[in-house]
Design goal:
This protein has 328 residues and is of the alpha/beta class. The chain is built from 12 helices and 12 strands. The protein folds into 2 domains: 2-174 and 204-235 and 297-312, Rossmann fold (3-Layer(aba) Sandwich); 180-198 and 239-292, no CATH class. It is globular.
């Protein structure tokens, strides 16, 4: 089968493409930077340079494809203009789906974000639970807008589109930089990460990258059009996370708890100096505020309805640690 993908140079995208190729499919990747996509070409992927706003170029790229995974997004911590998030994530999704319909693509899976559902203020988050708080940043808001774009195409255009929303993804990386949680694990085993943000008690949901790929594939196969599936894993506190990581890695480091107020102060100073130097901040107060809440998420629906089989948290950590050491 011929399958198209946007965002294939990302952490999850690379793993998904690898799984698609291993299953005997041919893959067309829409990319913005051909040089960044060189590793994909080495796998036999057909890379087509196109912008998410260029409908004609996208139609040409999607011609002859049966399925589409739309994963491309603006997920940076900070953008000079917040409109950038909406132009890429919402308007870009609209253009991609228009092109997919014109090209005759039969099924599409769009990757959203678990952050759209918000923190677990009034209980564990599920697909049916209303969001408790306003969006923390333009990224979350733009991904929510993108989800509405998907629903419009399903309802008005009769397209078969399924949404999937991963939580905090980690695991081995195939090339390039790993996702943020994987990078934290890598720095820990190198002795360069000693920070617990907020406190040991704060809980988040962590999902292994292979399980996220499995969720995408199963959503394509049997997901209900217009539905959004939380690709969730295990609810783990920071204390439990680093205790397990210490055990599987055989390393024990003294960890420093950085309270939210200290992180907020650092974020303000860091953002100020970054902007003064014309650089993009690596941390902002909007993102720090997210750490003042639990983010517990239910994986019940993806397990029961799609049949996702979750990797045990300890096994996932162990595989990630071993991968980092092999790459080093």
């Amino acid at each position: 089968m011929k399958i198209a993908i946007t965002g294939g140079t990302g952490f999850i995208g690379a793993h998904l493409i690898h799984a698609l190729i291993e299953a005997g499919n041919s893959v067309v990747a829409v990319v913005r930077n051909p040089r960044k996509a060189k590793p994909l070409e080495a796998w036999g992927v057909e890379c087509v340079e196109a912008d998410l706003q260029d409908e004609k170029a996208l139609i040409s790229a999607f011609e002859g494809c049966d399925q589409l995974y739309h994963m491309a997004a603006c997920a940076t911590v900070w953008e000079k203009q917040s409109e950038t998030y909406f132009n890429v994530n919402a308007h870009g999704t609209d253009t991609v789906l228009k092109a997919a319909k014109s090209a005759g693509i039969k099924r599409t899976v769009v990757t959203s974000s678990g952050g759209v559902f918000g923190p677990s203020v009034s209980g564990e988050v599920s697909e049916q639970k209303p969001r408790d708080l306003n969006y923390f940043n333009a990224y979350e808001a733009s991904k929510a807008a993108s989800d509405l774009v998907v629903l419009r195409h399903v309802l008005e255009e009769g397209m078969h589109v399924v949404l999937v929303s991963p939580t905090r993804v980690f695991g081995p990386y195939l090339w390039g930089e790993p996702a943020s949680v994987s990078l934290m694990i890598k720095r820990y085993i190198h002795g360069n990460w000693r920070l617990i943000p907020g406190g040991r008690h704060w809980k988040g949901n962590y999902v292994y990258v292979d399980d996220v790929v499995q969720g995408h594939l199963l959503a394509m196969e049997k997901g209900r059009s217009g539905s959004n599936y939380l690709l969730a894993g295990h609810n783990v506190s920071y204390g439990e996370f680093f205790e397990e990581l210490s055990d599987v890695s055989g390393q024990s480091h003294h960890m420093i708890v950085a309270p939210i107020w200290l992180q907020m102060a650092f974020a303000r100073i860091h953002a100020f100096w970054a902007r003064m130097r014309g650089r993009r901040p690596d941390l902002t107060t909007e993102w720090v505020r997210r750490g003042n809440y639990h983010w517990e998420v239910s994986s019940q629906r993806v397990e029961n309805e799609l049949g996702v089989q979750l990797t045990a948290f300890r096994d996932a950590l162990l595989r990630t640690v071993e991968s980092h050491r092999q790459n080093d």
